[in-house]
Amino acid sequence: MTISFRTRLLLIFTAVLAVTLTATTLSALRATDANTRANATRELAVAERVFQTLLDENSRELTDRTTLLAEDFGFREAIATNEEDTIISVLANHGDRIGADLIMLMSPQGEVLISTHDIGADLGRVRAGLGSQASAFSLLTLSEHQPYQMVMVPVDAPQRVAWVGMGFLLDNDLLGRFRDITSADVTLIYREREAGNYSDVQTLSTLPTQPLADVDLLGPYDEVLAQAAEQLRDQGLLSRYATLLDQPPVHLGALLTVSLADAVAANTRLRTQMLLIALAALVSAAVVTLFIARGITRPIDTLVAAARRIASGDYQHSVSLKNTNEFGVLGQTLNTMQNDIQQRERHIFYQARHDLKTGLPNLEQMAQRFTELTPDDQHPVAVVLVRLENVSALSDVYGLAFTDEIVRLAAERLVHRLRPGDIAGRVGNNEFLVLADAQLAGECDQALAEYLAVFDQAIEHQDIDVLLDVRMGQVMYPEQASSFEDALRRANIAVSDARVHGQALERYQIGRDESHLRQLTVTNRLQHAIEHGGFELLFQPQYDLRNRRIHSAEALLRWHDDQLGRMFPDEFIPLAEQSGDITQITEWVVTEAIARMTAWQEEGHDLGVSINLSARDILNSHFIDRVIERTAHAGFERKNLMLEITESAMVTDTELALTHLKRLYGAGFDLAMDDFGTGYSSLAQLKTMPIHELKIDKSFVLRLDEDQDDQNIVRSTIEMAHHLGLTVIAEGVENQAALKLLEQMGCDAIQGYYLSKPMAIADLKPWLAAFNETTLESSYG
Ligand code: C2E
Ligand code: CA
Ligand code: CA
Question: With a 6 A CB cut-off, is 697 part of the ligand 1 pocket?
Answer without folding.
Answer: no
